[in-house]
Structure formats: C-alpha cells, structure tokens
Amino acid sequence: IIEVERVLEKLMRDTCEPLGALQEVLERLQTKRINPWEKKYGQVPSCDLGEHCAVRKGSRIGKMCDCPQGAFCNFFLLKCL
Prior knowledge:
Layout (H helix, E strand, L loop, with lengths): L1 H30 L22 E4 L2 E4 L9 E2 L4 E2 L1
Antiparallel strand pairs: 1-2, 3-4
C-alpha cells in the first residue's frame, strides 16, 4: 500500500507540473488582445509592374500582391501588366 501511495504521489506531481504550465500559457493567451488597427482583413502587399502577382496551384489561382493603379494582374502570365 505504501508503494502504491508513492506511485500515485509521483504520478500526481508529474502531471500537475505540465498542467500548471499549460494553465499559465492559456491565461497569457487570453489576456493578449490584438488591437483593431493591427488586424489586416484580406490585405495583400503591393507589387511593381512585371512582378509576379499570382500563383497557380492546379486549377486555382491565388493572389500574392496588388498591382499598381492602372495595371492589372494577368492570370495567364501571372504578372502585373
């Protein structure tokens, strides 16, 4: 019975340390807030003429950057024209 108590005591001590660390991390994450002006909703960086502005993956095309005013992203060449 004494050995069982020792094993249980060791098990409790070993599992409580990681749980305490996890609790601490979760508390830090809850207090960390992102300011509204730091959020970037769907914004992509701007690129220059002739630069690659999109990526093709299979049948899908993903936009990498916005072309300058007066130019457009050619999805065949994947460059700003």
